[in-house]
## 1
Amino acid sequence: MSFEPPPRLLLGSGPSLVPQRVRDALAQPTVGHLDPFFVELMEETADLLRATFRTENAATLPLSSPGSGGMDAMIANFVEPGDRVVVAVNGLFGERTTDALRRAGAEPVRVEAEWGRAIDVDELRSAITPDTDAVCVVHGETSTGVCQPIEGLSDACRDAEALLLVDCVTSLSSQPVLLDEWGVDAAFSGSQKCLNAPPGLAPFTAGERALEKLRGRASPPRSWFFDLSLILGYWGGEGGRVYHHTAPVNMIYALAEALRIVAEEGVEQRWERHHRAHEALRGALAQLGLERFPPDGEELWALLAVKLPDGVDDASVRGTLLTEHGIEIAGSLGPLAGKVWRIGVMGEGARPEPQERLVRALSQVLGRELEPALEALHAGWAPAPA
Ligand SMILES: Cc1ncc(COP(=O)(O)O)c(C=O)c1O
């Protein structure tokens, strides 16, 4: 190889640690995007995605784009110009969704909470009027480390004949995501968070109500590339698979391997491990003076957002962690910039060893006592008494 990336312990907001098995899959020889071997792998990948999303949706596939393309695709296909769309906004990704809705010619109706808080589901429900066409919710708000409840929205959406559209980029495979049970009509995610594949793919799924809206549109989606009816011709059309674009073959190898790892662990066991990892790290960091930012019960298990203690310089601590310890954690954006750190608890990062490395490094850089933090970490991971 002509270059060598530095070894990094990725414990930020994504990308996350990519296991060797996934890197090996990525490095396998490229085959054609209609090769029978690849077609079989596409089918397996779609099945594994269905299991992870907890959906039976036939239209389930990885879009050839990062997570942002999932957002664009969802809006391009299932929102029409002039639609009234209720949108939950309590962080950066809710803001982006609003922006994307405006660009699509929709009329976004914002239901807001301050950054760092979940939005009351009743408040969202009461914004859904009979003329509402869709409701957009970010399940895992990565900018603040908050998990937004979705359960309880679908009845109101169905009464209004509105679609429920969900961003689960950061929550997928780390916290219960029960799309069919929750009545979600379409959702997207990203390959680089809790699935531990490299960035570049957006797992995507759409149910019958969403596809019906697509079929009944007054005009086709403005985006040719993200027109789902064209993409489905390649990912599972009735007349066989037809060329749409050249799929990123090796990235799909990587995603398939990452999803096999999820399936081997078991999705529910994986949720449980992330919950435990979140709480163990939370306890350890509290001993170093870093308190969690979101209140109890509103936290996103995959991302621990903590408040910086007074007098601690954001950029210099993160810089030292990266250059001297090879560890990446994330700062914050918007109103939280310089005030909150975001620490990934994603897939391979949600384990005792990487967390211990972080705790040791942080205690050194912050000049805080290590032992109580390590004790809290180990207690958090210790098996529960029988
Ligand atoms: C909640 C959420 N939505 C959308 C995105 C966009 O994903 P990508 O950066 O892969 O385009 C991200 C990325 O961090 C995210 O956290």
## 2
Amino acid sequence: MNRRDFSKHILLLGLGTQSGCATANMRNVNSQPGSYYEEPAKKLPIRKFDVVVAGGGTAGVVAATAAARNGAKTALIEVKGYPGGTVTEGGTALHSFYNLWKAFPGVKKRQVVRGIAQEIIDRLLKVGGTSGHAEMSKGYNYDSVCTAIDTEMYKLVTFEMLVEAGVFTCVNTLLAGAIMDGSRIKGVIVESRSGREAFYAKAFVDCTAYGDLAAYAGADYTEPNDYAVCNSIGIANVSIDKYYEFLKSHDAITQQAEGRRSGKDGQIVRLDGKTVNLPDGFREGAGKIGMSMVTTTVHDNYFMFIKLNLKMPVSPTSRDAVAKAELVLRRRQARAIELFRQYVPGCEKAFIARTSPRLNIRRGRLISCDYDITLSDVLEGRHFDDDVMVYGFHDSAPRFQIKNGGTYGIPYQALRVAGIHNLLAAGMMITSNHDAHMSTRNTVCCMGQGQATGTAAALCAVKNCGTRELRYSDLRETLVKDNVYLETALSRK
Ligand SMILES: Cc1cc2nc3c(=O)[nH]c(=O)nc-3n(C[C@H](O)[C@H](O)[C@H](O)COP(=O)(O)OP(=O)(O)OC[C@H]3O[C@@H](n4cnc5c(N)ncnc54)[C@H](O)[C@@H]3O)c2cc1C
């Protein structure tokens, strides 16, 4: 839907975009044509901030922390009861803080994502909540390090960081609309059990993964539906060492990394198995339920993120299609645990210790930004005059890798939502090309984008300017002060 269509829908509902409020997902409203209830207008209490960050997930916690640390009065709106998002619910580990030095002999090892993302890992290490940056000993054409996390400690640690930074952290709070003044967002509508409120701010960051705020604000977007959705499970009462022996005895190990597990260094923390070599019953069963074998762990008796993938026929913004998928995925989870119990030594008494609270998606809405990172930008290791971070990992490695084990830059212009005066975007909602997105959507890249957008939003608020009027040199200087790593020299003011 483009801005014109969106505005037309809003006018149909008598809402209007000029100093108006867009509060509903128009596609869902239109699912029952001809039958409408006209909601009476309400007076909402107003709270005022410098920066509002929508979505407290992978990118959002970093964005809000960065904004608050740079002096902005910041609110974070998160619908769940905790921060963390997909990093605590979907993936197997964090990819990747480093360049791909292992796959390119002779290339210097360097940590390319630092700043707040690294601080989270430092804090997790202190509470036994991560494997640390565990180097891959097998399958290092894919990644050089794997950083596994204890998902529950991640939620706590990031929550504490937000509060320490002074972020007004609104969990259990839904972002339900945008209040527009032309192309400028004046405020957002939030809903919680404390009621419906308006949060006004000078600058906004959309980190909702689905681009909810951008869509409410009337930005252009599409819904590519180009990935499987997934619900992943944590399996407890298992032995990772016996699982390792099982995979090894079938010559099935494709990825392996050693790091800290249950307080001891040098332990296996990541394993990927080639199902083709595994017993027929297991292989066939896993195929039927879309099960991926990659697992990580930071505890001796726990596997994280056994994934059950499902390709939906329509975009995951459809409530009813998602409801069907949620049930299918829960049935698949039950089948997955049966397979582990039946075939994998050490897992005879395994059980599901956690599931994702709702299905996860690698891409919901794709939001149009001022620049769209291309596949050749990624693979050629291109850098821009306005880089705000660099990244060096591709999820489809070794098929796709960044040239010579190097990095590419994420430019500031790729994080500015097109057509909106004061809105930035970070996370899985940017980058239209599927194969380029297979790099930019990864956790650590989203975290870096979070730091860039939160910092930029704070500077825009302080300088009282739109996202396009912010001087890149000011943004860069602040990012570098805050330990963000960049590879190119400042070429313009
Ligand atoms: C199944 C799966 C496996 C993956 N595996 C890996 C992997 O192994 N390694 C890796 O690096 N990456 C992996 N990824 C990719 C990576 O995890 C995601 O791309 C990344 O975490 C997305 O971050 P984000 O900040 O965009 O979104 P999220 O982390 O999802 O954050 C969005 C947040 O916004 C909140 N929110 C949404 N809408 C609203 C609203 N209207 N109001 C209030 N709050 C709202 C959500 O609750 C959530 O907390 C995987 C992704 C999936 C889905």
